[in-house]
Amino acid sequence: MTNVRLTHVGGPTVLIEFGGWRLLTDPAFDAPGHKYPFGRGMSARKTTGPALRVADLPPIDAVLLSHDQHPDNLDTTGRGVLATAGVVVTTRSCARRLRRTVHGLRPWGTTTLEGPGRPPIGITATPCRHGPPLSGRLSGEVTGFSLRWSGQRHGELWISGDTVLYRGVREVARRLDIGTALLHLGGARHTATGPARHSMTAADAVQLCGLLRPRTTVPVHYEGWSHFRQGRIAVAREFSHAPPEVRTSLTWLPRGTGTQITV
C-alpha cells in the first residue's frame, strides 16, 4: 500500500509526491487577470491565481504535460518549470515543439521513470479528444497519463488530461485498473465554437466513474478560467445523485495544501 500526497496548485496543476518522487502536472503559474488567445478565435481570461508560487515548489523530478498549446495548461511562468524539471513526459507533437529532452508518447505508449532508491514508475499515455468530433486540427494533440508502481493496492493513478467523454476515454476503463482518477472537468466552452464542449461535464464524470469504479475521484481544472461553465457546485450536485460507489469516491483537494491519498 502506498500513500500519495496530492497538492492542488490550481487549474490542472497538481504536485504528486510519493516514494521520494515529485511529479507535477500541467504547470500553470501566471497571475490572474490576463486574457489569453487559444487560437481560431477562441480566448479566455484567467480569474484565479495559483495557490503556490514556483518558488514554493520542491525540486521537480518530472512534469506530466498533457499539452502545450493552451495557456491554461502551460503558461509563461510554467514554461520556466519545464527548464528545471528532470524529465518532461508529453505528446509527440509537443516534444517536437519543445526541442529539448522530452519523452513524447503516442496514445497507449509507455515509458518508465527510474531513480536511485525510488520505485520505478510506469507511465501509460491515454487518449484524449479536446473537443467535439473532428476537432483535432483545432485543439491539437492532448494526452492523459496513468501511473503504476510497486505497492499500489487499489489500482493505477490516472490523470485524464483535457478531454471530452468519448470512445478513447471509455477505453481506459477496459484496459486499465484505475484506483485514483484526477479528472479535468469544467465543461469548457468558447463563444467562437458555440455549444461545443471542450472538456468533460459533471454528468460525463459520473458516467465515466461508473465505468472506471475508482476508489478515489479528484476533480481538477474546473475553476479559475472564464471558459469553464461548471464549477464545484455543479460537480458536487451531479455526484450527489450518483450510485453510492461513485458518490463516495468524490474527493476534493484543498488548494495549496497537501492531502494524503491511499492508492
Automatic annotation (TrEMBL):
Superkingdom of the organism of origin: Bacteria
Pfam families: Lactamase_B_2
Ranges of residues in domain Metallo-beta-lactamase: 22-222
Swiss-Prot/TrEMBL keywords: Hydrolase
GO terms of molecular function: hydrolase activity
PANTHER family, per the entry: L-ASCORBATE-6-PHOSPHATE LACTONASE ULAG-RELATED, UPF0173 METAL-DEPENDENT HYDROLASE MJ1163-RELATED
Name the record gives this protein: MBL fold metallo-hydrolase
Native species: Streptomyces liangshanensis
